[in-house]
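Q: What structure does this chain adopt?
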Amino acid sequence: MKKIAVLVGKEWAEVFRNKIVIFSVIFMPLVFAMIPLGMLYTTAGADVSAIQSELGPLISQLSSACGPLEGLPCTQLLLLQQFLVLFLMMPAIIPITIASYSIVGEKSTRTLEPLLATPITTAQLLAGKAIAAALPALLASLGSFAIFALGVSLIAGSEVAGRLFSVLWLVGIFVVGPLLSLTGVSLAIMISSRVNDPRAAEQLAGLLVLPVTALFLGQMFGAVALNQSLLLSIAGALVFVDLALLYFAIRLFQRETILTRWK
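A:
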């Protein structure tokens, strides 16, 4: 664990010099928190029927989303629920940016060769890089959610804000989000160990966001109802995907090949 901790500290010291990484970790979570809050603010004092007419196909989800809430609070909660996907995107997007630079970026600084020459194992090396990429993403996502929940409490009241801590939201934030983060990290490490350009690694690994974006659009058009059962099914599938990706990441990371190719 000591070797992994040292590697994590080294990773953070290097990657956080990059402005793109800083933007991803600090500003992206703020933007993702403010988007739904801005939408919520426009509903304050608005006519319920007018808002519901704008929701279109989502209106069928009112009864399942609201529980004991009625009227405007119920409609506001349904509107906010569509943005849960944003809080699933963050843990996937942020570590991709960090992990993509963690291996490829070391080529330009010529720090990869000395690192691979150390007695650290491949599993320890990848674990350190994965933790260094995933931990800031998870902390940023939790911080963004805390700002979001506080904003909802101030704009819509504690009754609506309290529903953000239902099983649906907790599974999304604390289960699906971290699993997606691990998926993004594994993909980024696998790809960055095979390419020479960090931007190419980031773009290829960024394809992970497409299914999450499809889920968001499916919600907005009423084709998908994001509920507890669906999130648990997604979480179960991600467990198997992450285990497979971690296995292949270790198998594909060939130290000698990387050293030979990058000299």
